[in-house]
Write a structure and sequence with these properties.
The protein has 2 helices and 29 strands. With about 550 residues, the protein is mostly beta strands. It has 2 domains: about 90 residues; about 450 residues, Porin, CATH 2.40.160.10. Strands 4-8-9-10-11-12-13-17-18-19-20-23-24-27-28-29 form a 16-stranded antiparallel β-barrel. A two-stranded antiparallel ribbon has the order 1-2. A hairpin with a 5-residue loop joins β21 and β22. About 30% of the residues are buried. About 5% of the residues have low confidence. This is DUF3138 family protein. Keywords: Coiled coil, Signal.
């Protein structure tokens, strides 16, 4: 049959009307008529058409598969874009909704807090502890009381044997961040952060608990990516405050404590400033900041008021837009800070320096006791510090260490020791001080952190001779201080020494027991042992007052 079909095909191709073929197997002649040739030709054409149809169907199917794949990819991309919009809508509000430009992204932050503080010695503080106010057993003032007989007498009043418990919601916080891109390489950020730890003269806990909002941070920052430059202006954390990455606002590393005064030994401030930072590949950073000055502490002196001793002051009564019950210091130039930071790949490291100037107004007395010509006296202070954040075990164990040493730096320590004392001429004398804080944090799980920290701040004494030939200065044993009654409960006097050091040891944990689409809810506790030591008196006695404090915190972070 194959032979016959091949013969017919050849005949059809040649246009023959008939053909005769010989079978190789039977040696028989096979004659095919013209009609049979035409029929076979028709069948061949039909088969060829069927092959073409099948090929066309195959090409159509391949094209449909390509189009289907493209359609699936487009749909998936649209789904991903929609999901991103949904996520962004849950955390951000666009500027055109809040009245700004459509290119501004608004992000809300903060938390609602319900917190408690227990202190074994009552310092009369809210959730923020005044470390230098721990009461001693004796050396307090007296207050009249009525006896059983009706007579009025006096009895020493001290909080050394009074414990304190206080509830507080005042650390609750709200923040708003606005971000916009001027172009692909220039970005601007505005940030506002507030809490309720402001206390005007009318604020109290008697009935309505009407405390005040206060500014924590309020600044604008511009980043120029092409040049690695960053400019910040406004109220922000001082340049000396430890950061976790580079020198970057909102990346500050704070102690994990509940106490709003943080931990003894922590160097920091939040104040108005103008800051310029340069980075190299986001790895090396150099910044300079010009910040608001204040002389926050003035150590008492001996011999003041005697004939021939200069009358001097470093503060004046507050004026316009300040509470007139307060004072402001005499400062002529701002504090200037410079910091270098490095992120080499493991850990974060910082070195910084600060320059300060102090001013006093001096009115000397003349030989006959009358006032002399007034003049300004100035003195220079400053210091150096360091900071580091080390991931000892990445994402499990972190170690934070910072410290500072210098003269006139008391204002920048958590404890708030004195900045200066006076010389015999009435000029300011910056007091030498050092401070340090170390914190170890164990991230037990994504929901549980355990931490321990210890810190100290300590000042050196200063002594000279006054114009009357008697000892003058701060903290020196020869200045006539007497600490003999400091540890005797109810003793009305003889506890006149000055603060030399503050130490604190703290342990605590934070449990984030809910983290989900409705935000985060957490519970935390903190125990601290705080001690305050005085300078030695002329008998070599340097007493210490200790306070054991326990804090709890319940917070909801909705954003």
């Amino acid at each position: 049959m194959r032979s016959k079909m091949l013969t017919v095909a050849i005949a059809a191709g040649l246009g023959l009307t008939s053909v005769t073929a010989v079978s190789a197997q039977t040696s028989q002649k096979v004659t095919v008529s013209a009609a049979e040739l035409a029929q076979m030709k028709s069948e061949i054409q039909a088969l060829e058409q069927k092959v073409q149809d099948l090929e066309s169907q195959q090409q159509a199917q391949q094209q449909a598969q390509v189009e289907t794949a493209q359609s699936v990819q487009a749909t998936q991309a649209q789904v991903q874009a929609t999901q991103k919009q949904v996520v962004a809508a849950t955390t951000e509000h666009k500027g055109d909704i809040l009245g700004g430009t459509g290119g501004v992204k608004w992000t809300f932050g903060g938390f609602l807090a319900a917190e408690t503080a227990y202190r074994s010695r009552d310092t009369a503080d809210d959730i923020s502890t005044k470390f230098t106010a721990i009461p001693f057993q004796g050396g307090t003032s007296t207050a009249p009381i009525n006896t059983a007989s009706g007579a009025t007498t006096s009895y020493p009043v001290t909080n050394a044997r009074n414990s304190q418990f206080v509830y507080s919601a005042r650390q609750s916080r709200l923040s708003i961040k606005a971000e916009g891109d001027i172009n692909d390489t220039t970005h601007v950020t505005g940030y506002y952060e507030t809490d309720f730890l402001g206390g005007a003269q009318t604020a109290n806990m008697n009935e309505s608990n009407s405390f005040n909002m206060r500014i924590r941070q309020l600044w604008t920052n511009i980043d120029w990516d092409d040049y690695g430059l960053h400019l910040l202006g406004g109220q922000a954390w001082s340049l000396m405050t430890l950061d976790s990455v580079g020198i970057t606002p909102t990346k500050e590393v704070l102690p994990p404590t509940i106490d709003a005064q943080y931990g003894a030994g922590f160097n920091w401030a939040r104040q108005t400033q103008l800051r310029l930072v340069k980075d190299w590949d986001k790895k090396w950073w150099l910044g300079i900041s010009v910040e608001n000055p204040q002389t926050a502490g003035i150590g008492a002196t001996a011999g003041t008021g005697t004939k021939g001793y200069a009358t001097t002051t470093a503060t004046v009564q507050a004026g316009s837009l300040y509470d007139t019950l307060n004072t402001v210091s005499l400062n002529q130039i701002p504090d200037i800070l410079v910091k270098f930071a490095a992120d080499p790949g493991w850990g974060h490291y910082e070195l910084f320096g600060i320059s300060r100037q102090f001013t006093t107004r001096v009115t000397p007395t003349t030989a006959n006791g009358g006032p002399g010509a007034t003049s300004n006296q100035t003195a220079h202070g400053g210091g150096f510090g360091f900071g580091m954040l080390l991931p000892l075990v990445p994402k499990v164990l972190d170690f934070q260490l910072s410290g500072m040493d210098g003269k006139g730096i008391g204002r920048y320590g958590t404890s708030g020791l004195n900045d200066i004392t006076y010389t015999a001429s009435g000029a300011p004398h910056p007091l030498k001080e050092n401070m340090a804080l170390g914190t170890l944090t164990w991230h037990v799980s994504d929901a549980f952190d355990l931490y321990a920290e210890g810190g100290r701040e300590q000042q050196d004494s200063y002594q000279t001779l006054g114009l009357n030939g008697k000892p003058l200065g701060y903290g020196a044993a020869d200045l006539g201080y007497n600490n003999s009654d400091c540890l005797i409960y109810g003793a009305p006097s003889d506890c006149t020494g000055q603060n030399r050091s503050v130490k604190e040891q703290t342990i605590g944990f934070t449990w984030k027991f809910y983290q989900g689409k409705f935000g985060r809810v957490q519970f935390a506790t903190q125990f601290s042992h705080l001690s305050r030591q005085l300078y030695s008196d002329n008998k070599g006695f340097a007493p210490t007052a200790a306070d054991n404090m326990f804090f709890t915190s319940f917070r909801y972070y909705p954003f």
